[in-house]
Design brief:
Elements lengths: L1 H14 L1 H5 L3 H40 L8 E5 L2 E6 L2 E6 L5 E5 L2 E5 L5 E4 L7 H15 L7 H11 L10
Antiparallel strand pairs: 1-2, 2-3, 4-5, 5-6
Helix pairs in contact: 1-3
Length: 169
């Protein structure tokens, strides 16, 4: 919204420069302020509908490409984690995982610093079942769960990590 205000300021300065040169400073100031307010208000009113429209376009494209709304069959065992979607299976051994994180009941199995396979707490019937799963993963992987650093950074934060700033194994 601030960028829209700056753009509106420059538009107002350019379009009302003749009033400034003529010495009509009062009218110039009123027009500049009105243009900035109108630009910011326009962005404020249009930003929500534009976002909804773009998100709906993106969602329709993903649905058409059958990239969302498909069942995922996942398995975690002694050999690692694997999941199958649309007949394609991805398998990661415990050694190849980038990081293991636990955040508020959700287990994150990081294949890289950008790709995670999350297992939320709602997948487990009880807290006891979740704890048995947690202990099994600890035994099979041979390493502990780290704090949720990658999960909380977001995609932009993870993209900016240098190679030596990885989550410890």
């Amino acid at each position: 919204m601030g960028a829209a205000g700056i753009v509106a300021l420059f538009v107002a300065l350019i379009t009302n420069f003749d009033k400034w040169q003529a010495g009509d400073v009062g009218t110039f100031a009123i027009y500049v302020l009105a243009t900035i307010v109108a630009g910011a208000l326009g962005v404020f009113l249009l930003l929500g509908p534009i976002r909804r429209f773009l998100r709906s376009m993106y969602r329709r494209r993903l649905v058409k490409a059958e990239a969302i709304g498909r069942p995922v069959e996942s398995t975690v065992d002694q050999s690692g984690i694997s999941y199958t979607v649309l007949g394609q299976t991805v398998t990661c051994t415990w050694d190849s995982l980038y990081a293991l994180e636990e955040d508020a009941g959700t287990f994150h199995f990081w294949m890289s610093k950008m790709v995670s396979h999350p297992w939320p707490a709602r997948l487990f019937a009880s807290e006891e079942e979740r704890q048995v799963f947690r202990e099994s993963v600890l035994k099979w992987s041979g390493r502990s769960f780290s704090p949720p650093v990658l999960a909380r950074l977001g995609a932009r934060g993870r993209a900016n990590l240098r190679a030596n700033e990885t989550t410890p194994r």
